[in-house]
Amino acid sequence: MDQREGLRVTYRMAPVRGESPEQAARRIALEQTVELPDGCYPAEIEERSVGRVDEAKVLADGRWQVTVSYGTGLAPRDVPQLLNLLYGNVSLFADVEVADASLPEDIREWLQGPRFGRDGVRGLCGVETRPLLCSAAKPVGLSARALADRCEALARGGIDVVKDDHGLTDQETAPFAERVERCQDAVTRANSATGHGTLYFPNVTAPVDQVAERVAVARSAGCRGVLLSPFLMGLDALRWLAESSGMVLLSHPTFAGGLARPGHGISAEFLFGTLLRALGSDGVILINAGGRFPVPEEQALATARRLRDPALALRPALPVLGGGVAVAEIPRWIERFGRDVMFLVGGSLYAQGDLERAAQHLLATVSRAAERRP
Amino acid sequence: MDQREGLRVTYRMAPVRGESPEQAARRIALEQTVELPDGCYPAEIEERSVGRVDEAKVLADGRWQVTVSYGTGLAPRDVPQLLNLLYGNVSLFADVEVADASLPEDIREWLQGPRFGRDGVRGLCGVETRPLLCSAAKPVGLSARALADRCEALARGGIDVVKDDHGLTDQETAPFAERVERCQDAVTRANSATGHGTLYFPNVTAPVDQVAERVAVARSAGCRGVLLSPFLMGLDALRWLAESSGMVLLSHPTFAGGLARPGHGISAEFLFGTLLRALGSDGVILINAGGRFPVPEEQALATARRLRDPALALRPALPVLGGGVAVAEIPRWIERFGRDVMFLVGGSLYAQGDLERAAQHLLATVSRAAERRP
Q1: CB-based contact B285:B120 (threshold 8 Å)
Q2: SS3 B228
Q3: Is A201 left (phi over 0), alpha (psi -120 to 50) or beta?
């Protein structure tokens, strides 16, 4: 590869019988670039295209760690090809995971990261320091009118961002255009009454040839942001919407569970933290510990750190803690994650019946807990 | 869910302490639809939206198997939402895999499957019964001119489909438009000389806002088909290209390895067999046993069966056996897979140096082996 800083990927893998870590590293470097056996290509290709092995070693737990750098010219302003370099054919080997990768400047330059980020979202909501609050209009099957009522109650109660449930698309029961108009109107009405700056984010996850239209509908209804599921749509949809939509982008992790598995896949902190931020998520819904999903607290903390890490020269994004956050636990989560987060609370509000009162109670709880924290 | 035939998904999972298989099934049915605890929604939503548990049992190996049906109205002509129903949030649970799913008629109706399929590809190549042959122009880093020379040699040697290597996109070394024109011209020239009907398939995997243009360039250069990597692009890109491109679509499995893992993920035979066919792949590159990747032969056979299975009321697709197919092994693979396959042979030809002669030898080997098989 050429001499500029490359895409440096650290893989961890199960030991392979009959191979050394160095040989495994070389095998990966070839598989991910020339896809030919050693030497079955002209000599100049070695320097120009083949991944460079930077490190190959045995870890304390017996697994191998190998680091390979790829020339960024192999993925010219191209997210699908970036994913291919990162974890393309190598994903089809057994027990190989991407532990981490460093995104060099010339990739960061065109990805650009969040266009609003943490500070932009805070500005739009008019909330400077306390943790932000998010909830969802749900469930699928309700009419647009009933969903709008729920948006209004949540907004009146002081929720900062009311989003569509991620399974709401364009079902007959609440067609997209009607739903977006009714829900945004309901939130605007609530804001007029309360003076809050609640935002409504409709779900624009859609067939690839309909996404632009959904965003346009959301924009003309007055929405400032949208929800999307990049793993359902393809990760490049996120980059594209960041470049073209002018909207705050909130990313949902649905469908990512096959990819973000320890041992084989892409590490949660790189995938949900570094990569979703670099691709342009202003907020990333991440599964917190203690909820419905089996996530260790350390993983959620590490992902949140990546989203806000000043070492990555892009705007910080907002960690949105979800996956079953109980209102009663929130003071403890503020201790752990700090105030620069958004809490996504769904079922725990719905279980209380009166959404507006439940939201008010949540807001009071969060405000008190945040004040106690320096 | 309503009374029509639904999307019926069979999950297999590790037993969960403190839960019965029935409770786990109900938990999945709620998570995938209303995302609310039991009862925290109006009564009519139960019938309208919540997944219906059809089966919950303990398998002989101790794992649980649960089958849940989702009303197809939840995913109206919408592939991302179909994926969300199939394996959305449930992918974030531990150790849950989609073993299989049945695509009901009203989903098949709009997905439509392959537009050319096995017979269409055979017709375009002018090869009625023997196995088809595919190879790749590679490696990345060569000029468009050098890649075109390789296409010409492979076409002269009798390869039926010459495709771009899947890592060739729009790199400076061989820009897309120049490469496509030169490679298609080279193949056309070879066809004039030999009388073969070799096709050239460029790789249109690209940023989401550039795919349509790449396809247009390929079409105007005279290409009849393209290569794409649906797992890098998002699976809906495949459906969209099948609907809109008029091209033969050859799907590559890169990046799918995180998703297609036994124990957690989507079973290879459903993902690469049923789903890629239903979404519109005319040919699916699948990793064969005995090559560079650790795939059991039974898995490759099961995937190939799904691609051609007459029980799925869609055109049969062509299994394209790749992942390190050695020329010498081909007679054995014909015994196993039958003649209705395409062999993707790359490194094994390149290792011989003279591509045209290597291809001729491959064609002769395959023709002889196919004749011996009734």
Answers
A1: no
A2: strand
A3: beta
Q: What is the pLDDT of residues B251-270, one digit of tens each?
A: 999 999 989 888 899 999 99
Number of residues that this document lists for chain A: 374
Q: What is the C-alpha to C-alpha distance for residues B289 and B296, in angstroms, rounded to an integer?
A: 6
CB-based contact B207 A239, cutoff 8 Å: yes
Contact yes or no for A347/A353 (Cβ under 8 A): no
B265-266 and B225-228 as β-strands: parallel, antiparallel, unpaired?
A: unpaired
Nearest chain A alpha carbon to B296: A94
Give yes or no for residue B3 having a pLDDT over 60.
Answer: no
| pLDDT surpassing 90 at residue B326 | no
Question: Distance (Å, rounded) from C-alpha B93 to C-alpha A287?
Answer: 10
Residues in chain A with CB shorter than 8 Å from the CB of B207 are 77-80, 236, 239-240
∠ Cα A233 A72 A97 (to 5°): 60
Half-sphere exposure of A210 (CA within 13 A, CB side): 19
Q: Cβ–Cβ of B35/A169 closer than 8 Å?
A: no
DSSP structure string for A155-172: HHTT-SEEEE-TT-SS-T
Q: Give the span between the Cα atoms of B360 and A258, in whole angstroms.
A: 42
Q: Phi/psi at A283 (nearest 5 deg)?
A: -135, 145
Which residues from chain B sit within 8 angstroms of residue A253, using beta carbons?
Answer: 92
pTM of full prediction above 0.95? yes
Are B292 and A76 inside 8 Å of each other by CB? no
What does the block give as tokens for B71? 């009303």
DSSP structure string for A352-369? TS-HHHHHHHHHHHHHHH
Contacts of A254 in chain B (CB under 8 A): 84, 88-89, 91-92
Beta bridge partners, A13, equal A64, A96
Mean pLDDT of B114-121: 98
Give the single-character DSSP code of A287: E
Burial of residue B338 (CB within 10 Å: 0-12, 13-18, 19+) is middle
Chain B residues with CB-CB distance to A266 below 8 A = 258
Coil, strand or helix at A283? strand
Query: Whole-angstrom Cα distance, residue A29 to residue A67?
Result: 9
Q: How many angstroms separate the CA of residue A322 from the nearest CA in chain B?
A: 12
Nearest chain B residue to A230 by CA: give it: B234
Check: CB of residue B75 under 8 Å from CB of residue A205: no
Residue of A48, A94, A259 lying closest to B259 (CB–CB): A259
CA-to-CA distance for A84 and B324, rounded, in angstroms?
Answer: 18
CA B28 to chain centre: 27
* CB spacing of B88 vs A172 below 8 angstroms: no
Query: What is the C-alpha separation between A277 and B352, in angstroms, rounded?
Result: 45
Q: Which of A90, A205, A227, A255 to mutate to test the interface with B (most CBs of B within 10 A)?
A: A255
Q: Which tens digit of pLDDT belongs to each residue from B191-239?
A: 999 999 999 999 999 999 999 999 999 999 999 999 999 999 999 999 9
DSSP state of B51: P
**Dist. CA A90–CA B163, nearest whole Å:** 20
How far does the CA of residue B118 sit from the closest CA of chain A (Å)?
Answer: 25
Query: Does the bond joining B139 to the residue before it have cis omega, within 30 degrees of 0?
Result: yes
Give A248's strand partners: A225
The β-bridge relationship of strands A161-164 and A199-201 is parallel
Measured in whole angstroms, how far is the alpha carbon of residue A176 from the centre of its chain?
23
> Residue B352: what pLDDT?
94
Number of helical (H) and strand (E) elements in chain A, helices listed first:
16, 13
ipTM: 0.97
Could you give the 3-state DSSP secondary structure of residue A372? helix
Which residue is it, tokens 């599964």? A287
First to last CA, chain B: 49
